[in-house]
């Protein structure tokens, strides 16, 4: 299952397709043609081979109804050598579908992954694919309140990419002050809170003067709860093994598939003192 960070970044382009053009303009690596509209396109690239090809997001920049540039957007949390084979499929299939130039835009979670993704891909003699890559260092640091209102999706990327930046407090301060009142602002606050490490999340909550922020969007509730459940499940299995209580495979699967935080917490409490595995999971 994709991580919350992966899905949150991809979802920014689904909410605001024009973000693809904004980033390409910032990169200076791709000439963005004149366009009057940015629209989402299907990210599926079927092949006669049963291999499944699906991009994280696809955006077409258009003049009227005519595409002038198509952008394949990929979110990479770690280096993946298989992408060197699938990315060219995305671009050539999309180029044939829309009959316009295509570009690959890759957003990376760390600088190491960004460096790997920048390597040119040799497709054929004198034919090389060079992705446009954004690592954390390439995302602008947004500390201007007006800029948050103009481009809230870029502000989300700034808050996530620079969560350990020396100016983190200022970045989160303008984010907290302006994001509540913009379109989709509540959802974007949820996404950032779900992604930030604990210290940064507490800082943002404090800046929003709530202290106990409640997730409003279904997206964030689902992914944040799943992350918490996975942590509880891992803790439970660790306790059981440390106490040398046998954990049958069916019990392990039951624990790992459980998403009820209250139930998981009760199992953890019982695991600390139970004499047998049956006592932990008794009804």
Largest sheet: 5 strands, mixed
The pLDDT mean sits at 85
Q: What's the helix count?
A: 13
Helical content band:
40-55%
Kindly name the structural category.
alpha/beta
Commentary on this structure:
By secondary structure, the protein is of the alpha/beta class. It has 13 helices and seven strands. The chain has helices at 4-15, 19-27, 83-98, 111-117, 145-150, 152-161, 168-179, 185-195, 198-207, 218-242, 249-257, 261-271, 277-281; strands spanning 37-41, 57-63, 66-76, 102-108, 121-124, 127-129, 132-134. The strands form two sheets. A five-stranded mixed β-sheet has the order 1-2-3-4-7, sandwiched between helices. A two-stranded antiparallel sheet has the order 5-6. Helix 3 (83-98) links the parallel strand 3 (66-76) and strand 4. Helix 7 packs across helix 9 and helix 8 (185-195) packs parallel to helix 10. The radius of gyration is 22 Å and the shape is globular. The chain starts with a helix and ends with a helix.
Short description:
This protein is an alpha/beta fold and 283 residues long.
What's the helix and strand layout?
Layout: H1 4-15, H2 19-27, E1 37-41, E2 57-63, E3 66-76, H3 83-98, E4 102-108, H4 111-117, E5 121-124, E6 127-129, E7 132-134, H5 145-150, H6 152-161, H7 168-179, H8 185-195, H9 198-207, H10 218-242, H11 249-257, H12 261-271, H13 277-281
Parallel strand pairs: 3-4, 4-7
Antiparallel strand pairs: 1-2, 2-3, 5-6
């Amino acid at each position: 299952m994709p991580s919350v960070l992966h899905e949150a970044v991809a979802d920014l382009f689904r909410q605001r397709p024009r973000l693809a053009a904004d980033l390409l303009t910032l990169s200076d690596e791709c000439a963005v043609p004149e366009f009057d509209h940015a629209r989402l396109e299907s990210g599926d690239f079927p092949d006669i081979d049963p291999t499944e090809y699906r991009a994280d997001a696809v955006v077409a920049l258009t003049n009227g109804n005519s595409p002038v540039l198509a952008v394949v957007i990929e979110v990479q949390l770690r280096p993946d050598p298989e992408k060197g084979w699938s990315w060219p499929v995305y671009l050539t299939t999309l180029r044939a579908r829309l009959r316009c130039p295509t570009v690959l835009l890759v957003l990376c979670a760390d600088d190491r992954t960004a460096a790997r993704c920048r390597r040119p891909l040799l497709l054929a003699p004198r034919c090389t694919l060079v992705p446009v890559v954004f690592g954390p260092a390439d995302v602008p640091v947004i500390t201007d309140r007006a800029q948050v209102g103009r481009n809230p999706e870029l502000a989300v990327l700034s808050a996530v990419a620079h969560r350990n930046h020396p100016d983190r407090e200022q970045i989160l301060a303008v984010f907290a002050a302006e994001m509540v009142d913009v379109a989709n602002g509540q959802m974007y606050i949820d996404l950032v809170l779900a992604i930030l490490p604990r210290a940064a999340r507490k800082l943002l909550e404090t800046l929003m003067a709530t202290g106990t922020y409640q997730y409003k969007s279904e997206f964030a509730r689902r992914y944040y709860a799943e992350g918490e459940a996975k942590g509880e499940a891992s803790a439970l299995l660790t306790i059981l093994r440390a106490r040398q209580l046998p954990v049958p495979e069916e019990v392990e699967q039951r624990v790992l598939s459980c998403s009820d935080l209250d139930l998981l917490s009760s199992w953890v409490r019982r695991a600390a003192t139970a004499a047998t595995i049956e006592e932990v999971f008794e009804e």
